[in-house]
Structures are given as C-alpha cells and as structure tokens.
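re: ur question from earlier - yeah i can do the single chain one, its not a big deal. heres the input i used so u can compare w yours
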Amino acid sequence: MSARRKLESAAGVEAPGAGRGARKQMTRERLLDAALTLMSGGNSFPSLSLREVTREAGVVPTAFYRHFHDMDELGLALVEECGLTLRRLLREVRKAGVPTTDIIRHSVAIYLQYVRAHPRHFRTAASERNGGSPAMRQAIRNEVGHFVREMAQDLRLIGYRSDLPTEALEMICSLVINTMLNAASDILDLPADQPQLTRELEENFISQIRLVFLGAEQWRADPDVRHKK
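and the output i got, formated as tokens:
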C-alpha cells in the first residue's frame, strides 16, 4: 500500500473510484467490527473509549461522528445489526406453513447456524445483557421485545392459541426467546470437531422449546389476572 493510501485509510478515506455511500458504509462496518474485536479481547462495552475504537478501526476520531452520535449509539447498532437478519430468517420459517414441530426444528437449526457464524455478536450480547452499560442492556431488551412481538404476530396468523389475549401469547413467546438466548453460550462453547455433541445439544434445545409449547397448550389465562393485586 502506498504512503498516500495508508494516510487515506487512516483518515477513513477510500479510493476515488469507490462511491461515497460505499465508503461511508465501509467505515461504519470497520467501527462496528473494531468494537467487537476489542470486546472479544476481554473488554466490556462500558470500558471502551471512542479513541480506542477508532484506533482499532484505523480511522480518525472525527470519522466516528459521521456515523454515530456517541458510543451508546454504536452499541445500539451492534445489537440491531445482529438481530435484524436473525429475525427475518426466523420469520421466514414461521411463515412457511409447516407444522409447529417442524417450525421448532427448523428455527433451532437456523439459530444454531447463525450463532456459530456470528460468535462475537452473541458473546457480546451474553456479557452485556446483565452486566453491561444501561444503554446496551436497554438495547438488548428492545431487541428481545422485537423478537417476542414478531413471534406472537406470526403465531397469531397461523392460528396458534387463538383463544389467548396478546399479552399471554407474548409471555409464551418470551419464554421461548429467552430459552434461545440462554443457549447461545453453550452453542459457542461446543468443540468444532465433536459433531455428536452438537446434535445432542440441538435435540436438547428442541426438547426445551417443545416443553414450553406443551405447557402453553395446557395453560389457560385468567381473564381477571391483570386486575388482581
């Protein structure tokens, strides 16, 4: 790389042939990747500084503000970036018109594959979910809420427990989503060279979610429960 290219890269400037939008997106991705890299090295999100992130990304600090208002906004982007694609993939499974048992199996398979393809995102979410910055915890709660509401909407569309009010259906979905989140660390800790362990974890994961739905089939919401003290 020429001296000029090195200086341009350090400043977050790309080659003249690249479109402005592409350059901006590339710099944004470098900042997000830099934050993930630093957290993978043992740093918590609250401990990261803007200068550390920009130095890791190879851009000047002023380039940061072209993409994020502050570090909290970067943290929100990290959570949203991972959640948007996964939510879309899971919704496609639920809208495919297959039986509930197949929906569970296909959803678990997609989730396992996605977690293993994005280990830094999920390790970050696991560490920040309970002990991170207030902004990151809120961002994760918001994203979980999106998963829950979308899942409840899809179950309503396929006629699952049509007798239940929305609040009750979302409670059931919340149990499923939290079961999935809690499994992320176990998925990431699986040895890559032991496929039998992966199959066992997958079957156990499926059984846990089926158990949630089995209990949900038998459960009846108390119409007055919201009015009780």
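The radius of gyration is 21 Å. not sure if urs matches, ping me
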